Amino acid sequence: MAERLRVSGASVIVIILAVVATALAGGYFTAMNRDWYERLIYPAWKPPDAVIPIAWNIIFVLCAISAILVWNTRPRTARTYWTIGLFLLNAVINVSWSVLFFGNRLIFAAAIDAGVLFLSVVSVMIAAWPISRAASLLLIPYAGWVPFATALTWAIYRLNL
Predict the structure, then answer these.
(1) DSSP 3-state assignment of 73?
(2) pLDDT for res 73
(3) Radius of gyration of the chain from Cα atoms?
(4) pLDDT of 2 higher than 60
(5) CA distance 103 to 122
(6) Is residue 2 part of a domain?
(7) Number of domains the chain is built from
(8) H-helix segments, 73-131
(9) Helix axes 9-30 and 78-98, enclosed angle (nearest 10)
């Protein structure tokens, strides 16, 4: 049976709102403790602060498109619901990094969370592949960014022991 993409306006709005809510929640916690964050010691390879939100905004847009492709590909199967559930779990893990790092200043826990986030991204990519290869491929930048962010979090932890 051939897969067909049938886009529903309501589903697009719901997915975009979910992604925006994820980004806003992460941003809320990221704005906490900025004075503490600015006093931390960073590795020389840390990108400028302006680069990080740009990277995340691109990732969030690609995630939204990916989720839209998964949800709107027909026929909708149990795998579709499972994959959307993984997207939602990924969003929670993503926000939890900001809660741990900025909200609670728990850099070690945030580094562990970042590793779990990477596993979550890969899980979404694997689950999405049979539904929509394009949806899976759109997550490659996310899968590439998270190990970098994980390494950066670990480096910040080690430099600030």
Answers:
(1) strand
(2) 87
(3) 17
(4) no
(5) 26
(6) no
(7) 1
(8) 78-98, 107-128
(9) 20
Would you say residue 90 lies in a domain? yes
Please write the tens of the pLDDT for every residue from 26-46: 989 988 888 999 999 999 999
Q: How does DSSP classify residue 40?
A: S
pLDDT over 70, % of the chain: 95
> Is the preceding peptide bond at 75 cis, omega within 30 degrees of 0?
yes
Residues of the domain holding 64: 8-38+46-159
Report yes or no on 3 lying in a domain.
Answer: no
Q: List 73's β-bridge partners, or say none.
A: 5
Give CA–CA dist 98/17, Å, rounded.
Answer: 19
- Picking from 10-19, 63-72, 117-126, 139-148, which range would have the lowest pLDDT averaged per residue? 10-19
d(CA 73, CA 6): 6
